[in-house]
Amino acid sequence: MQHKGVIDVELTGSFTLSEDVVAREVGEETMLLDLASGTYFGLNPVGGRFWQLLEEGRSAAEARDCLLDEFEVEADILDADLSSLLDELSAKGLVAAA
Questions:
Q1: What is the SS3 assignment for 97?
Q2: What is the distance, to the nearest Å, from the Cα of residue 54 to the centroid of all Cα atoms in its chain?
Q3: What is the DSSP string of 7-45?
Q4: Domain hosting residue 21, numbered range
Q5: Taking the model in full, what pTM does it have?
């Protein structure tokens, strides 16, 4: 199912995940451990699912479409949240633009 809506520029790119990051589900959260810095990051269910989809090799845009199918969320809100998440993950060195 194709969803209409504006995808932010960041979501149209490809990303690589840092090899120094280990992800584990803990209750409702996905915990990311950056082995390089020893820092933990917690992701809510949507963010955790996004990370999982990126780990599976999906592009950010493909992952976004999956999330729209799986969660009850408006496309523009999801786009803004995912762009913000990617900015934060990128700033912390957990993902990089490919």
A1: strand
A2: 7
A3: PPHHHHS-EEE-TTEEEEEETTEEEEEETTTTEEEEE-H
A4: 9-93
A5: 0.85
The verdict on residue 98 lying in a domain is: no
Write out pLDDT tens, residues 38-65.
Answer: 999 999 999 999 999 999 999 899 999 9
Name the residue type at position 70. Answer: E
CB distance 94 to 14 below 8 Å: no
Judge whether 60 and 54 are in contact, CB under 8 Å.
Answer: yes
> For residue 68, what is the enclosing H or E element?
helix 60-70
Could you give the number of structural domains in the chain? 1
Cα distance from N-terminal residue to C-terminal residue, the chain: 26
For 96, the enclosing helix (H) or strand (E) is strand 95-97
What's the Cα-to-Cα distance from 54 to each of 30, 37, 67, 81, rounded to whole Å?
14, 21, 12, 16
Indicate whether 16 belongs to any domain.
yes
